[in-house]
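Blinded run. Sample ID left blank on purpose so nobody reads anything into the name before looking at the predicted structure. Input follows.
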Amino acid sequence: MAAQSPAIAEIALQLEAAAAQIHVLSTLPGAERFEYIKQAIEDVKAQVETVKNEVSAIDGKIDKMRSDFELHRTVTTKYNTKVEARVHNERMRTANKRVTDTNAGLAALYDLRTNKPIHNFPLTANGFHQLDRSTCDRICCALDWAAPSLSLRDQQNFLIDQTGFGGTID
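Blinded prediction complete.
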């Protein structure tokens, strides 16, 4: 243990000398500038982190706005399609009011979801009497009409009525 004491004392002296040198270095004008520069760098890092967080928040808001815009576009497109089909259908109903013969041609109505003619839409009043229940339901669905509790014959007559047919049904 006695041999270690001089080594410890020597290390202590070296540490004291190093501390004195650090103290001398810290009193130099350049050392003060270094601390200011170091603090400025830390401040810039903090500002960059703040800007990064703000940009990230803005990105989130932009993504939400983009998503809202796409949803609005989809809803608007569906709405416009439905409105265009309704306008067409009103014109066709008006034209169909002039048809009085059950075998004469009726103007086809459009599906409100697609704004295209309804598939296999009967083109005569008598043609509606050939429809089965599922076809009647499909046409009602395409036109946004509800007639589920009617008998098949009443549902067929309901569809004929809704097309604007101007004649009488047997």
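Unblinding after everyone has recorded impressions. The chain has five helices and no strands.
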